[in-house]
Amino acid sequence: MRVLIVTSGSTGDVAPYTGLGERLRAAGHDVTVATHEPFRGQVALPFEPIPGDLRRILPLARGQDGNGSGTGPRALARLLRIARPLVAEMGDGIATAVRRTGAEAVLLSTLVAPLGYQVAEAAGIPWAGVFLQPVFPTGDFGPVLVGGRSAGRTANRLLGRLTEAAARPLYRRPVRELRARLGLPPRAVGDLQREQQHRWPTFHGFSTAVVPRPTDWPPSHEVVGYWWPAREAGWAAPAEVEAFLAAGPPPVFVGFGSMAPGHGERLAEPVLAAVRSAGVRAVVQAGWSGLRATGDHPDVLSVGPLPHDWLFPRMAAVVHHAGAGTTAAGLRAGVPAVAVPVLADQPFWARRLHHLGVSPPPIPLSRLTADRLAAALAAATSQPRHRERARALAARLADDDGAARVISWLAALETQPAAPENRDGRTA
Hints:
By secondary structure, this protein is an alpha/beta fold. Helix content is about 40%, strand content about 10%.
């Protein structure tokens, strides 16, 4: 079957789908990944570009400069507002990718799903969500995109629906115009959302050992396990990194991924001071912020992109922004974490890490200081309970196979291609 995986966002929003795509290819499917052009070099599978680049809007999001909170309703409202131009230009790119590949099924990440549903409907092909975050409303926890803090079951569900409704304006005009260009009848976005997100399944790519499947989710929403990024064929560790790792005890990792773009110099001061104060060695990854060690820091190595599945198991702890992908990589490695969340779903994952016992309390980027980071590093590297919990969770994750359920769904499509019934009990 010709399968198109469509995703948008940062590196952490692309990498998991490279691994899922490779598994689908090994199962006999013809797989293409469609995402933004800057990620072409990270995708070994056939590639289709779609317009947009998150780096255009992330610097404008609240909290990226370390001043003020990047989470909560006001921060989400700003993020949705600045994301509108990105969303508006992606629909035609998805339609072009479906047409060029002759896709027979489409797998859609969270951000592109409302657009991809329309394209798949027009093409008459099945779709499935492949989400990295549990964004569907639930009473089990608060809305993920505003931090996930629980306010009680009834309030959680209400706030989840309100958050879902607040995101609809982001898609209302793009969906309306896309449906018109595709020759589909006009429909209210809310009605479409309620129908389309249940007509086919939505698979969530994280483990129930990390986030149990919410008890009040509809049958259409499944939690299947992580999709691990594919490593580049023939990749070899840089000699400089191998030498640094061999020269002393395991270092800590510090990196903020796609967060704080352009603020690397400002972040370097508290990070390097904390590393010195905690008495640890460190591998510092530049990411989009450009974080690096300058001057004389013999116990600190600055690096660019490196596969987390290779690097993290060699660390004493990992300091990161708690994005879904980096959080998963740290859990897979079985090492303690120090979470420094910035925005969107990151505070939710940061709280999960602390709740699971693999990290001390999170330090929001707006509250990051050398003293706080040093204390957290000392706790993460010296308290055995964090490492014990991390190792136990890694053992649980090793038994998961997130791709297997997607493979079985595609196999069922090949043998039973008839139009589905909505899995919430309504007819399509």
